[in-house]
Amino acid sequence: MKPLLLNGHSRALTQIRYNAEGDLLFSAAKDDKPCVWYSHNGERLGTFDGHKGAIWSIDVSYRSDLCLTGSADNSCGVWDVSTGALQYQLPTASAVRTCNFSYDSNSFFYSTDRAMRQPCLIRIFDLARVKQEGDSVQPRLVIDVDKQSMGKVTSAIWGPCDEYILTGHEDGEIAQWDPKTGNLRKRTKNHTGAVVDLQPSADFTAFISASKDTTARLYEFDTLTPIKQYNTERPVNSASISPRKEHVVLGGGQEAMSVTTTSGKAGKFDARFFHMIFEEELGRVKGHFGPINTLAFHPSGRGYASGGEDGYIRVHQFDQSYFDFEFES
């Protein structure tokens, strides 16, 4: 399983995202240039030039025609994928930490950091209004997270059928928000550290959370009931569910600020595969020279990609032996 090594970023990766078909891979990093790649051969299709700060989050619409980026330059960008042009740049009062298109791509939201005396807010927009009114458009709904006495939003996704928005917080809480009224539907706290990544299963019945408390947990979407827990001995920065097999992959490692004082082996920078049901580790994949910050399974389940603190993206295609392997409980 020899990976494709993609080197297009000058700083640490923050998020990678496949489009629905899986032929394109979108990447964001702490430099100011998001990239898009062909996933089958690693060729860079282009970059999106326009931001002036680190890019914390990236997403692509279902039809792969628009890209959404959230940046530390206090703006959220909407891009044309085919031309790379910045169509709309929505200004904010603090850094944009998360952003996400709805499943039908008719709406999107972004969340801002609690910083510079600004509250943590979730703003929801209708794409049609953005196209009509441009950068000055007002959000359809603003949710003030601070009113619920919660930590700032560190990860967020849409729920099944866009019925609610799911958020992970720096204090370990996970919450559901109604995108029509802004009301808090449910909240739960099973993690003791920040929830830095949320990713759904292919059928949207479950999602996995990655936390700085060295664990990842599998939850039932609607009830927020924790189903399974995957334990490691290092902070988990990202976790993803296979759409093809009952596997999950976890990535993380020792904190980046301490990396230079230890060897790669001691830092534990491997991608770790667990059986989703039995919670047992199946294997590890080495490669990165720093913590893994982001992971994503290919929509076909035939491979996965990882982005690290070292600035590299590694795109893996599974060998036939992976598909032949049967777990013996």
Main sheet specs: 4 strands, antiparallel
Number of DSSP helices?
Answer: 3
Low-pLDDT residue intervals, each spanning 5 or more residues: none
Class per helix and strand makeup: mainly beta
Approximately how much beta-strand content do the residues carry? over 45%
Order of neighbouring strands in the sheet with most strands: 1-28-27-26
- What portion of residues is helical? under 10%
For the secondary structure, the number of strands is 28
Radius of gyration: 18 Å
Quick check: average pLDDT? 94
The shape, in one word, is globular
Distance between the termini: 25 Å
Summarize the structure.
The chain is mainly β and 329 residues long. The chain has 3 helices and 28 strands. Helix content is 5%, strand content 47%.
What does this structure look like?
The chain is mostly beta strands. Helices cover 5% and strands 47% of the residues. It has three helices and 28 strands. The protein has helices spanning 127-133, 264-267, 320-324, and strands spanning 4-6, 13-18, 24-29, 35-38, 44-47, 55-60, 66-71, 75-80, 86-91, 96-101, 107-112, 121-126, 141-144, 153-158, 165-169, 173-177, 184-189, 195-200, 206-211, 215-220, 226-231, 236-241, 247-252, 271-275, 281-285, 292-297, 303-308, 313-317. The strands form seven sheets. It has a four-stranded antiparallel β-sheet, with no helix packed on it. The chain has a four-stranded antiparallel β-sheet with strand order 2-3-4-5, with no helix packed on it. Strand 10 and strand 11 (107-112) form a beta hairpin. The longest helix has 7 residues, at 127-133. The chain is globular. The mean pLDDT is 94.
